[in-house]
Amino acid sequence: MTGDRVDAVFAALADPTRRAVMRALSEGGPVTATRLAAELPVSRQAVAKHLEALADAGLAQGERLGREKRYRLTPAPLAEAAAWIASVGGEWDARLEALRRHLLAER
């Protein structure tokens, strides 16, 4: 995963409303902005903007069906971001373990 894509995922998920939209998408399947707005305390226009931000980050995908556009979750970028977090966490685990061994050796 490129740095730009990781940045886009984290930027998209930084907003609590977008996280609520992601949760709704993960629980319900393809859904319109109108239906999501009925479930959330924001307007349909705000939900549409949040869906576009999620789509720009690769976290949601819209499909036009007649006059409606239905969105669904695309979780692959989440898995890639989680892998990035795990790799960074693994590096820090190794560093902290080395520090622990160093401090124990100095006793």
Brief description of this entry?
The N and C termini lie far apart (42 Å).
Question: Could you characterize the architecture of this molecule?
Answer:
The chain is an alpha+beta fold. It has one domain (3-105): Winged helix-like DNA-binding domain superfamily/Winged helix DNA-binding domain (Arc Repressor Mutant, subunit A), CATH 1.10.10.10. The chain is built from five helices and three strands; from the N terminus they run H-H-E-H-H-E-E-H. A three-stranded antiparallel sheet has the order 1-3-2. Helix 1 (3-13) runs antiparallel to helix 4 (44-56), helix 2 (16-28) packs across helix 4 (44-56) and helix 3 (33-39) packs across helix 4. The longest helix has 30 residues, at 76-105.
Helix proportion: 55-70%
The biggest beta sheet is recorded as:
3 strands, antiparallel
Indicate the radius of gyration in whole angstroms: 19 Å
The CATH superfamily is identified as: Winged helix-like DNA-binding domain superfamily/Winged helix DNA-binding domain
Kindly report the average pLDDT value: 89
Total number of helical segments? 5
Succession of helices and strands:
HHEHHEEH
Low-confidence segments, given as residue ranges, are none
CATH architecture label: Orthogonal Bundle
Q: What CATH first level would be assigned?
A: Mainly Alpha
Structure characteristics:
elongated, 3-stranded antiparallel sheet, alpha+beta, 107 residues
